[in-house]
UniProtKB/TrEMBL annotation:
InterPro entries: NA-bd_OB-fold, NA-bd_OB_tRNA, Rep_factor-A_C, Rep_factor-A_N, REPA_OB_2, Rfa1. PANTHER family: OS03G0429900 PROTEIN (PTHR47165). GO terms for molecular function: DNA binding; zinc ion binding. The keyword DNA-binding applies. Keywords: DNA replication, DNA-binding, Metal-binding, Nucleus, Zinc, Zinc-finger. It is found in: Nucleus. As part of the replication protein A (RPA/RP-A), a single-stranded DNA-binding heterotrimeric complex, may play an essential role in DNA replication, recombination and repair. Binds and stabilizes single-stranded DNA intermediates, preventing complementary DNA reannealing and recruiting different proteins involved in DNA metabolism. GO terms for biological process: DNA recombination; DNA repair; DNA replication; telomere maintenance via telomerase. This is Replication protein A subunit.
């Protein structure tokens, strides 16, 4: 776009977040805008204004004044001459004042460096300084292979134009680890810009930065208009994502419990938490390893999860992985909204568990090219040491039958009626109540949920599978409560 204050004109570009002004038809020829935040950049010996934030003030049909190129007399912003129209005078004074203020700041006259937008970084730019928020910072990670060993940490920097990954190795890791904090805004300059390794880089940027001995990091106290860098998926929309996608999510921690997997020597501890949001849905989040061990909250905080993996175990769930991160009670508008909403409405709300795109935790259509036989699953030891997913096409060969002689083969169990608790209940003859050892609930009657073993097979063999409530409902097209009532009618206890 070309910008003019009525006396001078110059070339400018819109940051991507402002494109909607043009797409929606608000940014038209001769319209008057107010650039509330902008920077400048050198491109082939020309200075281009980057509009980072703006408002459209008014639509005009005629051009304002007879502007000349700003290059004719250099990049100076002289005060405009007294115009013939009072309306034009007001507009010119506002435009000239805003431009003088912003460019003085960007040019370094007050100590602030010239800022380079992240989306303009490239290996061909030698001098650059970004003003960005650290939206993700990893722990120190160690590696060891035939070429040697070492350690590093990486972070993601975000400004109004995009995000870029940066990595600090060895000595730079020691120097910058405590200096850089997640959530804060910094001026960062110098470093080696390289093509991004897409397999390890999820920022969407074509480049990434390696910090070196010349890298300078300076805390910026002015973080106004600097984005938090995250867009959060509402829990109700998790079903629209595919299995193994990654997303950001934010919600209130409704409950938590820790599970230790002792079936294998190399298994890691993991903790489950249930988060809820204003969409009325709940979702299970699984934390692993040290994150699970260190996660200990007593209240019901708001938690922001970044780059978590979408799963489909008993419906949609989320899994914390190596490059995931979390923040408790973040200073975000989404978090403040959720806190107020939950305290006012969520304490007694009946939340619905997240389901997959098909409503039953499935990921969608089956990819037949990925079908496996049971023999292949067994021979490859899939799921032995770690949780794994596979696709098989099987026929039901045997299910428990509701007969007197099969009383030792249960089809369901009496479950707790409390939300987010499916623990089995025990009956107390003294008060004729059902009691939950996990949540201390007391009920007149349980909620029966499917829990059984059935035999499934294909042309290569068969195996026994554990069937839980959501799958049992699909198989029998009835709630477990109905089958339990049939047992009563048949006199089978």
């Amino acid at each position: 776009v070309m910008l003019s204050d009525g006396q001078r004109f110059t070339q400018a570009m819109l940051a991507s977040q402002n494109n909607h002004f043009a797409i929606d038809g608000y940014l038209t020829k001769n319209c008057i805008i107010k650039a509330t935040r902008f920077s400048r950049s050198k491109v082939q010996d020309k200075t281009i204004i980057i509009i980072l934030a703006m408002d459209v003030v008014k639509q005009e049909k005629e051009r304002l004044g007879m502007p000349q190129s700003i290059l004719d007399e250099g990049p100076t912003f002289a005060q405009p001459a007294t115009p013939t129209s009072t309306k034009t005078s007001t507009i010119n004074k506002i435009s000239a004042g805003a431009a003088t203020k912003s460019f003085t700041k960007a040019s370094g006259l007050k100590g602030e460096p010239t800022i380079t937008p992240i989306n303009q970084l490239s290996p061909y730019r030698n001098q650059w300084t970004v003003k960005a928020r650290i939206t993700k910072k990893s722990d120190v990670r160690k590696w060891s292979n035939e070429r040697g060993s070492g350690y590093l940490f990486n972070c993601t920097m975000t400004d109004e134009t995009g995000s870029i990954k940066a990595t600090a190795f060895m000595e730079q890791c020691d120097r910058l680890l405590k200096e850089i904090e997640e959530g804060k805004v910094y001026y960062i300059s110098k470093g080696k810009i390289l093509p991004a390794k897409k397999i390890y880089n999820t920022t969407g940027c074509d480049y990434e930065i390696t910090f070196n001995e010349s890298t300078n990091v300076e805390l910026c106290n002015d973080d106004s208009n600097m984005p938090g860098g995250f867009s959060y998926t509402v829990l109700a929309n998790l079903g629209d994502l595919s299995k193994d996608d990654t997303c950001n999510a934010i919600g209130v921690v409704r409950s938590r419990w820790r599970t230790w997997n002792n079936h294998e020597e190399n298994s890691a501890p993991h903790a489950h938490i249930i988060i809820v949001d204003h969409s009325g849905f709940s979702c299970k989040v699984t934390l692993w390893g040290k994150v699970a061990e260190d996660f200990d909250v007593k209240d019901q905080p708001v938690i922001a999860l970044r780059h978590v993996k979408v799963g489909d175990y008993h419906g949609r769930d989320l899994n914390f992985q190596g490059d995931s991160s979390m923040t408790l009670n973040p200073d975000l508008k989404e978090a403040h909204f959720l806190r107020g909403w939950y305290d006012a409405n969520g304490l007694t709300y009946k939340f619905q568990p997240c389901q997959g795109a098909s409503g039953s935790g499935e990921s969608g259509l089956v990819n037949h090219s990925q079908l496996m036989t049971l023999e292949e699953v067994k021979s490859k030891n899939i799921g032995i040491k770690t949780t794994s997913y596979f696709t098989v096409k099987l026929r039901v060969k045997a299910t428990p039958r509701i007969k007197e002689e099969n009383r030792h083969m249960p089809i369901s169990y009496p479950a707790c009626r409390s939300e987010d608790c499916v623990k089995g209940l025990s009956y107390d003859d003294s008060d004729r109540k059902w009691h939950c050892a996990k949540c201390s609930g007391c009920f007149d009657a349980p909620e029966y949920r499917y829990l059984m073993r059935i035999s499934l097979g294909d042309h290569m063999g068969s195996a026994w599978f554990n069937i839980y409530d959501n799958v049992g409902k699909l198989l029998f097209e009835k709630k477990a409560e109905v089958l339990e009532q049939m047992k009563v009618w048949l006199g089978i206890s």
